[in-house]
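Q: What residues go here?
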């Protein structure tokens, strides 16, 4: 028997309060308070690239020779919260009993931590090498400023990772919990089915990255800057979704 409505709502409310609380407090944390995630991230980047980092109090993990800094803004905590929210709220209804519901909320938060370190390390590597590659090949354009390129890289890496994390979690839940279920017949509306599976990660990504700042009056404070940021995020996510649909269609065909 699935969670009763009252218990389900209580789990959702607890998860939401945890999400908003973490979102509120992490935005006020300094690099010193974020070493629990910055330190393993810096080590992972070193493993991937061979670039050593040392910690500087109040700043973050730095490599002076290459002028690289993994600061508080590079911690990836926002991605961690998005991953937590997507896992917790999307799959919570699959559990029975309020205890299991609360445990899944906790497990979602714990799982999002190593996933964030893994993906954030890849994002930092891309942010280090891709601008240099594009510049050396004359592929940088006037509208693609360093800040916009940095935002685009982060959006593409994070959103693509979020789609894959959701697909993996959905696959595991279907295998574990629905062994007796027969496969659904092909309705012919394949693209709609593929996009339907992208709804949860897309919702949580846009809600956390654009929705909450908008509700916090970011548009009134930032004006055209927030509009340009939102447009860039939307274009990058749209490109990732298009690529995801094309790859999924090719997999179904072949």
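A:
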């Amino acid at each position: 028997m699935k969670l009763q409505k009252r218990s389900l709502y209580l789990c959702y409310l607890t998860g939401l309060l945890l999400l908003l609380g973490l979102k509120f407090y992490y935005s006020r944390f300094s690099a010193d308070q974020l070493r629990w995630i910055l330190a393993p991230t810096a080590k992972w980047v070193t493993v991937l690239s061979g670039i050593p980092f040392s910690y500087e109090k109040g700043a973050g993990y730095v490599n002076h020779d290459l002028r690289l800094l993994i600061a508080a803004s590079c911690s990836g905590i926002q991605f961690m919260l998005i991953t937590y929210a997507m896992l917790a709220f999307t799959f919570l209804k699959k559990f029975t009993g309020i205890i299991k519901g609360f445990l899944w909320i906790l497990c979602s938060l714990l799982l999002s931590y190593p996933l964030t370190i893994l993906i954030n390390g890849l994002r930092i590597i891309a942010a280090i090498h891709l601008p240099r590659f594009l510049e050396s090949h004359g592929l940088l354009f006037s509208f693609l400023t360093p800040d916009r390129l940095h935002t685009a890289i982060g959006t593409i890496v994070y959103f693509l990772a979020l789609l894959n994390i959701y697909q993996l979690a959905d696959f595991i839940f279907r295998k574990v919990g629905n062994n007796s279920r027969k496969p659904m017949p092909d309705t012919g509306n394949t693209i709609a089915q593929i996009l339907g599976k992208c709804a949860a990660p897309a919702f949580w990504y846009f809600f956390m990255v654009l929705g909450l700042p908008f509700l916090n009056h970011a548009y009134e404070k930032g004006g055209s800057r927030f509009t340009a940021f939102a447009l860039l995020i939307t274009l990058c996510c749209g490109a990732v979704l298009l690529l995801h649909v094309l790859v999924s269609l090719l997999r179904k065909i072949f």
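A: Context that may help when evaluating the design: Confidence is low (pLDDT under 50) at residues 180-185. The two ends are 39 Å apart (CA to CA).
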